[in-house]
Amino acid sequence: MDDADGAFIDVRDLTKTFTVRRRSGLLRRTATRVHAVDGISFVLRRGEMTGFIGPNGAGKSTTVKMLTGILTPTSGRLRVAGVDPWRERTRLVRRIGVVFGQRTTLWWDLPLRDSYGLVRRMYRIPRARFEENLARCVELLELGDLLDVPVRQLSLGQRMRGDITAALLHDPDVLYLDEPTIGLDIVSKARVRQFLLTLNAERGTTVLLTTHDLSDIEQLCERVVVIDHGRLMYDGPLAGLHEVGRGERTLVVDLERELPPIEGIPGARTVRTEGPRQWLAFPASASAAPLVSRLAAEYPLVDLSIREPDIEDVIARMYAG
Amino acid sequence: MHLLRLNFAVALSGFRRYATYRVATAAGVFTNTVFGFILAYTFIALWHTHPHLGGYDQSQALTFVWTGQALLAAAALMGGGFQDEFHERIRNGDVAIDLYRPIDLQLWWLASDLGRAAFQLLGRGVVPLAVGALAFDLALPASPRRWLLFLPSVLLAVVVSFALRYLFALCGFWLLDATGLNALSALLSLFFSGMLLPLTVFPGALGEVARLLPWSATLQVPADVLMGTQPGSAGAGLAFQAGWALVLLTAGRLLQTVATRKVVVQGG
């Protein structure tokens, strides 16, 4: 089922090129080739929960569409659970679950319960297994009161939880989540995240999470894959991202009075001043202790605090080059 | 067996989805009835000046009108049904979700449209026909045998109508905005089904051709089967419908293969 080396999703030198035709004259049309995915390789092991991030148009959706078999790669090798997704799409779809934050897989006019009944028939889920899975999702996602409500009457957060349930009733090996928390309030977000963590821990479901909400990634994924312009920018643990992105921590210093920008502290530079308050940036990998003792010795300190690098800044910096 | 159960469940869901909208159904019944009265009085005027037009006497012509009203929603003679929904899913990309499902697209939509049709036949068909029968002198058959032949004929009418609309809807994969095409599909159906005037009325080559086109299987043939006016026999009418159903469903299947391959190759 898995590759010999334990890879569950195996992507090698994957490319996808689209030909876009544009009108360039009255009757003339010129064709431009767009490299949406340009030689990406990565390997996901069974049970891994990976964040897949990149700006709009980076090639995330294109990659996920190829992983799920609804788009053919232009070149490269692609295996999901040992299967070529495009050639064996109908076989593979029984083993994957897909959740879109911006689309629904449920039937608008039907109560959740009826939608799930259809899902049971579609995937030929044995009755007992179905009941068990549904009960578990209902409990963890607190759907009990909502089962008989038509989908069109659900709030966004409720619908999202309903959609996640629909994607999991057939025990998929892989779950693709595309912006699963977009537009959700804090409580709903927390509930969805907690559920995904539980799912991953209990079932060992492999999860690939595409999102713009980096707090999703911070709370759910140990590993991130970053792509931009169709190329792989980073693949590794979340913590390592800070170093790659030249992450910096910030020391916020409150002085007794307004002073000229602090100078002469090795490894730190003043990035901002505002009255008696000054902001000093220093590398995320460096210790703050020597800086603080030096500052305390040379300046009239009243208070100070340290800010950790913001993952969003880190990634923005990576994209910028 | 699994497939049968799945498709029954899909059809049932189609039925339920339409059954949810009671006010819309009531409004539809009202519209059908009003439309029926307008057509009925037009036909009375017409048959008054031309008795036996198209081989029908006046009460047969009126029966044709009210049969048309009974089938208008069920056989989607003015378009609609799954077509609008499928078209919208192609346009906004939700069709990708359908491709993530372990199902056959055509069979899925057919089952769901049959469920819709079953509801609309009961919810929007029976009442207008009953009103028509009370208000006018209709040539409805007394023999249960005719009604028993009418039922499969209605089923085939819905299937042919589905198969036609499926072909039009699939064109959305190429056109992206198929609103114009949907309007064309509805217009062709309105005329060539016999909804505006029975196809037997049209003389010469146009009449011949119109009676052979697939749309004729969606109203003209079922109405003739009900009234016993089908040239040849009711069996010939059913065979004509079944033949078109087969041809059009096969064409839909082929076009679907090309269309999904296009999506798969080019991106949704």
Please give a structural write-up.
The complex is a heterodimer of chains A (321) and B (268). In chain A, 32% of the residues lie in helices and 31% in strands. Chain A contains ten helices and 13 strands. In chain A, the strands form three sheets. Chain A has a six-stranded mixed beta sheet, with helices on both faces. In chain A, strands 11-12-10-13 form a four-stranded antiparallel beta sheet, with no helix packed on it. A three-stranded antiparallel beta sheet of chain A has the order 2-1-4. In chain A, a hairpin with a 2-residue loop joins strand 11 and strand 12. Chain B is mostly helical and 268 residues long. Chain B has one domain. In chain B, 76% of the residues lie in helices and 0% in strands. Chain B contains twelve helices and no strands. The longest helix of chain B has 33 residues, at 234-266. The two termini of chain B are 33 Å apart. Classes of the chains: A alpha/beta (321), B mainly alpha (268). The interface between A and B is medium-sized, with 30 and 25 residues. Chain B: This is ABC-2 family transporter protein.
Protein traits:
heterodimer; A: 321 residues; alpha/beta; six-stranded mixed sheet; four-stranded antiparallel sheet; 10 helices; globular; B: 268 residues; mainly alpha; 12 helices; antibiotic resistance (chain A); ATP binding (chain A); nucleotide-binding (chain A); ATP-binding cassette domain-containing protein (chain A); ABC_transporter_ATP-binding (chain A)
